[in-house]
């Protein structure tokens, strides 16, 4: 609901302050500023910088607190962390509205302080990790990825409704989409209060995150072997991780050991580089508005196109494919790995088309193709959780949140600078960089093999 309205609020605030300064210097009367007057390089460059650094500052709370909230989730439950995330996001929205509607004497850059409120709960990325942790807690690994597809697809379904509705509300009042979003967060808090807790308090904690994991991921083309029993694992591994509990507070050590588990370095590489590449997609709305002279309220249909591809992939195609192939005996991990490979190739193709989009229909097609690649994340999550015991799922997902946040810290400013390359228009070089990263990841995924 608020993705495009937030950019519109930022642009409107920058534009109002820019022309207010001009009118003071030139001793002009108050101006009725049309949106077309905001499509000039000084305003658009400041908007790109503001948006890029906003990504960075929004990432910091999660980076600093995600592992801490992971340990809280293991000790006190998933519901508490979810509730805190909703409350922090709610306060962040309210701060943005306050700054953008305040007197023009307040600098627009004060919206960056909204990120401080995300320290409550650790940001939406931690909430997302908690949702996937709940699925991993309650579903067997042979069916887990199918449910993760559905969970990943729900936001895409809502995106089919939210952006068009947001665009219509923006035409009435710019703050109306925020009012709906705040109402949704309040409803979310109410739901969390009544939802069951998925945390399992095991009577005997496993000695290793690998216990019960029958498969590993290797970088060679090795065939299928035998299952390695726990006593034959590399010396020291199966005794290094105590079970999560109130007495175990050294969760940093757990994360370090998790990263060393067979197969997980590949997963963490994708968890880092894929989000970094996808950040450039956030600049598509500004790209369309800047290059095609669209009003920002019109760009909500771009989100609709992307959501159509995402929903088709995660709600229909991949769950059905997973169900059929599982019944035919295809190993779940092999299916996940193949989905990752194909999704990365599809995503790279979509970003190449974004770079070449000189017409609006090409932009819509490119975003639809990018949306079809959204099955990569739940497939990767299913693969990663299948490599470790379920008692360590919260630690895994919160460490993944840290990795993805680091990607945003680097990718936000980087893609913002790349987007600004050009004179009268953006060159869109950020999309080319994303395509290269995704293609390299696809090649790396193609050399990975499942060893059982």
Automatic annotation (TrEMBL):
<feature type="transmembrane region" description="Helical">
    <location>
        <begin position="147"/>
        <end position="168"/>
    </location>
</feature>
<feature type="transmembrane region" description="Helical">
    <location>
        <begin position="426"/>
        <end position="447"/>
    </location>
</feature>
<keyword id="KW-0812">Transmembrane</keyword>
<keyword id="KW-0472">Membrane</keyword>
<dbReference type="InterPro" id="IPR036259">
    <property type="entry name" value="MFS_trans_sf"/>
</dbReference>
<protein>
    <recommendedName>
        <fullName>Major facilitator superfamily (MFS) profile domain-containing protein</fullName>
    </recommendedName>
</protein>
<feature type="region of interest" description="Disordered">
    <location>
        <begin position="219"/>
        <end position="240"/>
    </location>
</feature>
<feature type="transmembrane region" description="Helical">
    <location>
        <begin position="174"/>
        <end position="195"/>
    </location>
</feature>
<feature type="transmembrane region" description="Helical">
    <location>
        <begin position="80"/>
        <end position="98"/>
    </location>
</feature>
<dbReference type="Pfam" id="PF07690">
    <property type="entry name" value="MFS_1"/>
</dbReference>
<keyword id="KW-1133">Transmembrane helix</keyword>
<dbReference type="GO" id="GO:0016020">
    <property type="term" value="C:membrane"/>
</dbReference>
<dbReference type="InterPro" id="IPR011701">
    <property type="entry name" value="MFS"/>
</dbReference>
<feature type="transmembrane region" description="Helical">
    <location>
        <begin position="338"/>
        <end position="358"/>
    </location>
</feature>
<dbReference type="GO" id="GO:0022857">
    <property type="term" value="F:transmembrane transporter activity"/>
</dbReference>
């Amino acid at each position: 609901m608020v993705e495009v309205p937030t950019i519109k609020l930022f642009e409107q605030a920058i534009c109002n302050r820019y022309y207010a300064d001009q009118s003071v210097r030139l001793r002009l009367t108050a101006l009725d500023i049309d949106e077309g007057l905001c499509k000039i390089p000084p305003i658009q460059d400041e908007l790109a910088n503001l948006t890029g650094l906003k990504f960075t500052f929004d990432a910091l709370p999660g980076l600093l607190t995600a592992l801490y909230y992971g340990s809280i989730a293991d000790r006190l439950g998933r519901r508490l962390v979810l509730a805190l995330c909703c409350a922090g996001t709610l306060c962040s929205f309210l701060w943005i509205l306050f700054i953008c509607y305040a007197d023009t004497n307040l600098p627009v850059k004060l919206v960056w302080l909204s990120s401080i409120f995300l320290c409550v709960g650790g940001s939406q990325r931690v909430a997302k990790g908690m949702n996937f942790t709940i699925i991993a807690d309650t579903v067997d690994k042979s069916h887990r990825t199918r449910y993760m597809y559905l969970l990943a697809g729900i936001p895409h379904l809502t995106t089919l409704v939210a952006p068009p509705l947001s665009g219509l509300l923006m035409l009435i009042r710019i703050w109306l989409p925020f009012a709906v979003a705040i109402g949704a967060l309040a409803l979310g808090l109410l739901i969390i209060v009544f939802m069951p807790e998925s945390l399992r308090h095991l009577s005997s904690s496993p000695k290793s995150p690998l216990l019960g994991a029958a498969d590993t991921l290797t970088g060679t083309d090795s065939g299928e072997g035998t299952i390695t029993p726990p006593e034959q694992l590399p010396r020291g591994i199966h005794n290094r991780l105590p079970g999560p509990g109130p007495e175990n507070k050294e969760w940093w050590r757990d994360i370090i050991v998790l990263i060393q588990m067979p197969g997980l370095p590949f997963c963490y590489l994708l968890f880092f580089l894929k989000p970094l590449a996808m950040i450039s997609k956030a600049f598509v709305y500004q790209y369309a508005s800047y290059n095609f002279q669209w009003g920002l309220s019109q760009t909500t249909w771009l989100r609709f196109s992307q959501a159509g591809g995402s929903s088709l992939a995660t709600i229909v195609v991949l769950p059905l494919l997973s169900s059929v192939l599982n019944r035919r005996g295809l190993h779940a991990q092999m299916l996940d790995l193949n989905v990752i490979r194909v999704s990365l190739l599809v995503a790279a193709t979509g970003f190449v088309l974004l770079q070449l989009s000189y017409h609006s229909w090409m932009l819509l097609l490119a975003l639809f193709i990018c949306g079809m690649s959204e099955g990569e994340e739940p497939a990767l999550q299913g693969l990663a959780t299948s490599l470790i015991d379920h008692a360590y799922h919260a630690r895994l997902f919160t460490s993944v949140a840290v990795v993805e946040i680091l990607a945003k810290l680097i990718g936000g400013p980087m893609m913002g600078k790349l987007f600004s390359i050009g004179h009268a228009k953006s060159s869109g070089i950020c999309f080319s960089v994303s395509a290269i990263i995704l293609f390299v990841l696809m090649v790396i995924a193609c050399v990975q093999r499942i060893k059982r």
